[in-house]
Amino acid sequence: MRIYQSEDYKAMSRRAANIISAQVIYKPDCVLGLATGGTPVGTYKQLVDWYKEGDLSFAEVRSVNLDEYLGLSPHHEQSYRYFMQSNLFDHIDIKPENTHVLNGLAKDPQAECAAYNKLIQDLGGIDLQLLGMGHNGHIAFNEPGDDFGLETHLVTLTDRTIDANTRFFDSRDDVPRQALSMGIKNIMNARRILMVVSGEDKAEAVLKAFAGPVTKEVPASVLQLHPDVTLVADKAALSKLV
Ligand code: F6R
């Protein structure tokens, strides 16, 4: 595993964007696995800036997102589809038909999950998967205790994740209780993984994930078993690890 320590959030974002842009330049029709949440916002902003400056094109890139809330339409401001449009897709030259986010309004969530697994397979697998990490070590919506063998599945959010995500909604009651999420198996099948983490409040999770035992209780700890993981984090997030 490679660990890049950045001075602050801005430098972390720039470094992560560098790695993603290297992937896109190296393989223009690559499959990017993308994440939402607060942490990658700066990374996406940097990629948009480089696109606008003419340094980068996403014209052939395909993308698959990690997860989506169940029950939210793509037009809901807190849906992950909306997040991706407003933070990245609307500002770059990626073809809309090449962007894939799970459908939160799927009538049959199980069928939607099965179709998503097939989609990832049909795309030839994920070349680079971007990940954030929750305070409890969750990756995508894979919560402590979830099986490492799961593919895309329907999940019930833990209280802690609902608490953490309440900041994006008007009230805690508005946070959806379920989501559709890639499983650990989909993530581990990606050829390369890039995790971004920022802030002292994540330092304990970073320590447990990367220096603790590999355990279902800390989902991100499974990344220790992946052959090509890059962790890009700011000093505060790495304060307990290094
Ligand atoms: C988002 C996702 C989540 C977040 C995690 C960290 O697609 O899958 O696992 O990466 O909750 O979120 P932030 O970056 O907001 O701390």
Summarize the structure in words.
The protein is an alpha/beta fold and 242 residues long. The protein has a single domain (2-234), classed as Rossmann fold (3-Layer(aba) Sandwich). The chain is 30% helix and 17% strand. It contains seven helices and ten strands. It has helices spanning 9-26, 41-52, 80-87, 109-122, 159-165, 184-188, 203-211; strands spanning 2-6, 31-34, 62-65, 67-69, 99-100, 128-131, 153-156, 178-181, 192-197, 229-234. The strands form two sheets. A seven-stranded parallel beta sheet has the order 1-10-9-6-2-3-5, with helices on one face. A three-stranded antiparallel beta sheet has the order 4-8-7, with helices on one face. Helix 1 packs across helix 2. The radius of gyration is 17 Å and the shape is globular. The relative contact order is 0.18. Bound molecules: fructose -6-phosphate (F6R).
The radius of gyration over CA amounts to 17 Å
Which ligands appear in the coordinates? fructose -6-phosphate
Uncertain segments are none
How does the helix and strand content classify structurally?
Answer: alpha/beta
The backbone outline, from C-alpha atoms, is globular
Q: What is the helical fraction, as a range of percent?
A: 25-40%
Largest beta sheet, briefly?
Answer: 7 strands, parallel
CATH fold group: Rossmann fold
Distance between the termini: 14 Å
Level-1 CATH class name:
Alpha Beta
Total count of domains:
1
